[in-house]
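Help needed: design a sequence for this.
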């Protein structure tokens, strides 16, 4: 079938589409990953694991989740656009290595893949934003998981991006 002349093609939208959408990272279990051939996770920090700007202690469920993944042999690494200082603090609290100012969607994910030492086909990028986490993960050839953002306490810019994301996901 040939497209009608002048028809707008939406073929590029695959880049912005997550392979899976979940309400929380806690839904990602070793069994869920095994069923999809995933052996490593690249994790966004803000609004994926903890609320944006949150500086307190991580909830016990989150620590237990990280430990359950590691016990099952799943490799995890943080890839965040947050400042390096914030990333470092959360890396210590969660016991997970990572990089800040990662430059998602363009640079950080490839660095993360290198750290995991796994091919992109065995890695999932997990995050709450389509234009950084999902786009970056898809461009790198990884599986992509979009989670519901934890906090509504966000910058105006992010609010604008959310509106665009809702539009994209409806297409
Ligand atoms: Mg985020």
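Sure. Designed sequence:
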């Amino acid at each position: 079938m040939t497209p009608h002349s002048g028809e707008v093609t939406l073929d590029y939208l695959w880049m912005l589409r997550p392979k899976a959408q979940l309400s929380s990272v806690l839904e990602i279990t070793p069994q869920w990953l095994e069923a999809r051939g995933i052996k490593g996770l690249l994790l966004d920090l803000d609004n994926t694991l903890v609320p944006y700007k949150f500086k307190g202690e991580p909830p016990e469920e989150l620590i237990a989740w990280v430990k359950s993944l590691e016990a099952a042999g799943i490799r995890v690494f943080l890839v965040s656009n947050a400042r390096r200082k914030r990333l470092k603090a959360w890396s210590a609290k969660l016991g997970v290595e990572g990089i800040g100012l990662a430059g998602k969607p363009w640079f950080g994910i490839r660095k993360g893949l290198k750290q995991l030492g796994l091919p992109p086909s065995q890695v999932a990028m997990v995050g709450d934003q389509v234009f950084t986490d999902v786009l970056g993960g898809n461009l790198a050839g990884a599986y992509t998981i979009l989670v519901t953002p934890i906090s509504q306490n966000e910058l105006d810019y992010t609010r604008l991006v959310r509106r665009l994301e809702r539009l994209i996901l409806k297409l």
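Residues 14-170 form a domain with the Rossmann fold fold (CATH 3.40.50.1000).
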